[in-house]
TrEMBL record:
One of its GO terms (biological process) is tricarboxylic acid cycle. GO terms for cellular component: cytosol; oxoglutarate dehydrogenase complex. GO terms for molecular function: oxoglutarate dehydrogenase (succinyl-transferring) activity; thiamine pyrophosphate binding. SUPFAM superfamilies: Thiamin diphosphate-binding fold (THDP-binding). This is oxoglutarate dehydrogenase (succinyl-transferring). It comes from Mariprofundus ferrinatatus. Keywords: Oxidoreductase, Thiamine pyrophosphate. It comes from the Bacteria. Residues 597-791 form the Transketolase-like pyrimidine-binding domain.
């Protein structure tokens, strides 16, 4: 609910921060019953009266003046017969207006909050008098319009039906949906049963069993592992039977896989009671006896881990998969969506029913974290839609210690879902049957309309944010009520006993049996340590974590020529833009060996060869179809009618041969997370996320830090995701220069990912082919070219595609001198600046050596190059970036370890800077000139000395 405990915690400073609507509600309550308010509020309004201020007319008083006058107002109608008998044409329609009001506002008066923390808001639209009706009209029959049931009903029966449907333990919100079919479906589905579950006795016993298991597991963990964090589900145990009902109904509807994501609250309970994770394994994780010396997968706490299992349903097995989730609560949301999309594509699940996503959120996180809104926006977009997600918000009505009125600006935490017009079912967490009904309705809606739907499970958190917390310090009233409130299990047990479905003895025996089982498992002497999770199975079978042979990425010349024609010659009648047509014709000549190969051609031919070989390629990003820099043109448009075409699909070859290119929405975090999830679910696809500019990846940094860089170490989950990040200093200001190379290098360890900066189209070609053809999957972080795209010095000879491979280090062999005075190491675009300057100065005694792969650091390849120049004393590292950025701080140490005793390394960089680059194009040129002067100078003045080895002072670059 919107403002728990506000009446008990309001202070003078908080009166207006709560908002004008809330203030007005307190004022109306003061007029009705001053004693019901907290003393602070009474004092506030009393002071206004004492000061002689004229109290304003309330909103409710204004409505009272505007509403139609009821027939029961005797002073007007003492001598007038019934309006219905005298042709009052408005009278029969007044019940229709009341029905519509309940559909719109009924949820505000539903019995949803187990703790009853908030007074229900005033809704005069739900009062009979608002429509000129009174209790004397209750027996009068009225037309019911599209209300499910008889065409005419007594007003009293109409009101009773509406209150049951919209004001009981399920409070639906759906009138914001503009699509009448979806709106009427929800309306009819609820009104037909008046939102009342009708489960048989066996089902109700089963629900109680689920509640009891959830409750007893938490109680057992609390007493046996006192003080350990577990982020318990206590207060929200109805989530367990709700998920159980959801899985069973989904399985009956043809779903074969359910991919779930959730944060840590209640995760252990879901793992045990829904996923079927061994209690023995869970206890071992609490005791710290799980395997500790395994090579993979021991890097995270127990309440972040995922799990997979198979569950029986009436219509067959449903595979459940719970994603591994870091502490950034909602970042799992797009990851799950991407995983589902990959699985649907693999299954050719055009109905979007076979694979379903279920996301379990916390109330504060769902309302507060922007990735939720980004992910919702993906739900209906081409290339991203998955046929709807079922969202379950475990609404504890608090975020750590923050009250809802400080955590959001909306009435409900679920209001954000209205941006995609998702229906929302608010449900009282103390009613497990209503929770199960809401889950079943959600599955039916999702599979009918292939749209998102939200269940707001309003419950509470029996303990603090974690079990060692003292929540009563900040929420005394809430936790006083929680302490007095019976548990969900107790309430439902009493209900079943009243209905003669279970007896006290039955319940006691069920509880005792489960407790004995828990204790038996915990005390077992032969309890084995959990086995390491085998992540190399299913779609990952045949892959390895380390040690795979290098694939042969070269391609036959005849095949390249043939594929170039098949990709770049379009059907007759398709009118290409003249510029694109020229680019396509040039590519054909490039693949005939008649021209050097440019970047757009090298990239396209990498895709073409992979897809022709039966491969699967997916490229997404902002403007990726055409490309930001007008070089790709993977999607072309007929200039006569605007219809689009993806020419690379003309070489698809096989059941899983796909080329997919998607222009994404203007989002980085959600889309990057989506593509990560896609790559983990489908290792046999080359998945590329392209940043429009490299700095845009900043917005997705949480995905990089918590999934891409650390996913294998924490969870033994590999990913082959490619991040393609334009990078290069070209005078375009601070935000369009750097992809923050230094941040990725800082994250590199344990061979967790690859960081590369290719400088030729052939290198790019072999990189992409290697990424898909290798039996190892590591994320590939690629600093991409910008100005290099049109720099002819960077273009590749055709032979590099037919005979070459990716080279981690690229040296030089053509210099006249065998003993240069200096060897310059560099990476990326600055090589071409150095090359042009060396040619301009006609320098012949300086060698330029490119490190194309910065991590894993190519020590062997670099050592071979260093040995060739054993008599050269000066080794320079030259980079465009400031001294505190770029690769210098990373490469300094590994290069130093490879140098010969007579060699020294010096750094040439821009000065240290808080921003990545300057804003002035003129100053940029001045800095570049200074950089090149230092690189080719006769001495080492102004260079960054290798202070670690030679005790030289660190002066910074000039």
């Amino acid at each position: 609910m919107s403002q728990p405990e506000a009446t008990s915690v309001a202070t003078q400073d908080e009166l207006f921060s709560a908002g004008s609507t809330y203030l007005e509600q307190m004022y109306e309550q003061y007029l009705r019953d001053p004693e019901s308010l907290a003393p602070q509020w009474v004092d506030y309004f009393s002071d206004m009266v004492a000061a002689g201020e004229a109290l304003p007319e309330t909103h409710q008083q204004i409505l009272a003046r505007m509403r139609p006058l009821p027939r029961s107002a005797k002073h007007h109608f003492d001598d007038i017969p019934s309006l219905a008998q005298h042709g009052d044409i408005e009278y029969p329609s007044r019940a229709i207006l009341l029905i519509q009001a309940y559909r719109m506002h009924g949820h505000l008066h539903a019995d949803l909050d187990p703790l009853r923390l908030n007074p229900r808001p005033s809704s005069p639209e739900l009062e009979l008098g608002y429509y000129g009706l009174s209790e004397s009209d209750l027996e009068q029959e009225f037309p019911t319009g599209d209300l499910t049931g008889d065409r005419k009903m007594a007003l009293g029966d109409i009101v009773m039906m509406l209150q049951r449907t919209y004001c009981s333990h399920i409070g639906p919100e759906f009138v914001h949906i503009t699509d009448s079919a979806r709106r009427h479906w929800i309306q009819s589905r609820l009104e037909r049963i008046q939102s009342l579950p009708d489960y048989d006795e066996d089902t109700r016993r089963h629900i109680y069993g689920r509640i009891m298991h959830a409750e007893e597991l938490e109680r057992f963990l609390h007493t046996r592992y006192l003080g350990q964090k577990r982020f318990s589900l206590e207060g929200g145990e109805s989530l367990i039977p709700m998920l159980d009902a959801l899985v069973q109904r989904a399985g009956s509807g043809g779903t074969r896989e359910i991919i779930m994501g959730m944060a840590h609250r209640g995760r252990l309970n879901v793992l045990a009671n829904i996923m079927g994770k061994s209690l023995s394994d869970i206890f071992s994780e609490f005791e710290g006896t799980q395997f500790e010396d395994a090579a993979q997968g021991q890097g995270d706490v127990k309440y972040h881990k995922g799990f997979s299992s198979d569950v029986r349903t009436p219509s067959g097995i449903v595979h459940l998969s719970l994603g591994f989730n870091p502490s950034h609560l909602e970042i799992i949301t797009p990851v799950v969506l991407g995983s589902v999309r990959a699985r649907q594509c693999r299954r050719k699940d055009k109905s979007k029913v076979e694979v379903m996503s279920v996301l379990i959120h916390g109330d504060a996180a769902f309302a507060g974290q922007g990735v939720v809104a980004e992910s919702l926006q993906l739900s209906k977009l081409r290339g991203f839609r998955i046929g709807g997600t079922i969202h379950i918000v475990v609404n504890n009505q608090i975020g750590f210690t923050v009250n809802p009125f400080d955590a959001r600006s909306t009435t409900y935490c679920t209001d954000i879902a209205k941006i995609v017009q998702a229906p929302i079912l608010h449900v009282n967490g103390d009613d497990p049957e209503a929770c199960c009904l809401a889950a079943e309705i959600a599955v039916e809606y999702r599979n009918t309309f292939h749209e998102d739907i939200v269940i707001d499970l309003i419950c509470y958190r029996r303990h603090g944010h974690n079990e060692a917390d003292a929540p009563e310090v900040t929420q005394p009233e809430m936790y006083r009520r929680i302490g007095e409130h019976p548990t969900v299990g107790t309430l439902y047990r009493d209900r079943l006993i009243r209905d003669h479905i279970l007896s006290n003895q039955d319940c006691d025996e069920m509880i005792a049996g489960y407790r004995d089982n828990l204790e038996t498992v915990r005390r077992a002497n032969n309890r084995r340590a959990p086995s390491p999770a085998n992540s190399l199975q299913g779609r990952w079978e045949g892959f390895v974590f380390e040690g795979a042979e290098e694939p042969d990425t070269a391609v036959n010349a005849d095949l390249l020529s043939d594929l170039a024609r098949r990709v770049h010659r379009l059907p007759s009648g398709f009118s290409l833009h003249p510029k694109v047509e020229a680019i396509y014709e040039n590519r054909i000549e490039m693949m005939d060996g008649k021209q050097p190969v440019d970047w757009g051609c090298g990239e396209t031919m990498a895709y073409a060869t992979l897809v022709h070989e039966g491969g699967w390629v997916r490229l997404t990003g902002e403007d990726s179809g055409r490309s930001t820099f007008f070089h790709r043109h993977a999607v072309v448009y007929d200039q006569n009618n605007g219809k689009s075409m993806i020419p690379l699909r003309q070489v698809e070859n096989g059941p899983l041969s796909h080329f997919i290119v998607v222009d994404s929405m203007l989002s980085e975090m959600a889309v990057m997370g989506y593509e990560y999830g896609y790559s983990v679910a489908e290792p046999r696809a080359l998945v590329i996320w392209e940043a429009q500019y490299g700095d845009f990846t900043n917005i997705g940094q949480v995905v990089v830090d918590q999934f891409i860089a650390a996913g294998e170490t924490k969870w033994s989950r590999m990913s082959g995701l490619v991040l393609w990040l334009p990078h290069g200093y070209e005078g375009q200001g601070a935000e369009h220069s750097s992809a923050r190379l230094e941040r990725f290098l800082q994250l590199c360890a344990e061979n967790n990912m690859q960081v590369v900066y290719p400088t030729t189209p052939a290198q790019l070609f072999h990189l992409f082919r290697r990424q898909l053809m290798s039996r190892v999957r590591k994320p590939l972080i690629m600093m991409g070219p910008k100005s290099m795209l049109r720099n002819k010095l960077s273009f590749s000879p055709f032979a590099d595609f037919t005979d070459g491979a990716f080279l981690p280090v690229m040296g030089e062999r053509h210099l006249a001198t065998a003993t240069p005075r200096r060897v310059i190491f560099c990476s990326g675009k600055v090589y071409y600046d150095l090359l042009a300057e060396r040619q301009k100065r006609e320098i012949e005694d300086v060698v330029l050596l490119r490190i194309e792969r910065l991590y894993p650091f190519p020590a062997d390849e670099l050592r071979a190059e260093i040995d060739r120049y054993a008599d050269t004393h000066e080794i320079f590292w030259v980079q465009e970036e400031p001294a505190n950025q770029g690769a210098w701080l990373f490469v300094n140490s590994p290069i130093r370890q490879l140098l010969l005793p007579n060699q020294k390394i010096f750094g040439v960089t821009r000065p240290e800077s808080a921003a990545p680059a300057v804003g002035s194009a003129k100053r940029h040129k001045q800095e570049l000139e200074a950089l090149l002067n230092a690189a080719f100078a006769e001495g080492v003045d102004g260079c960054l000395a290798d202070r670690h080895r030679f005790d030289a002072p660190y002066e910074g670059s000039k």
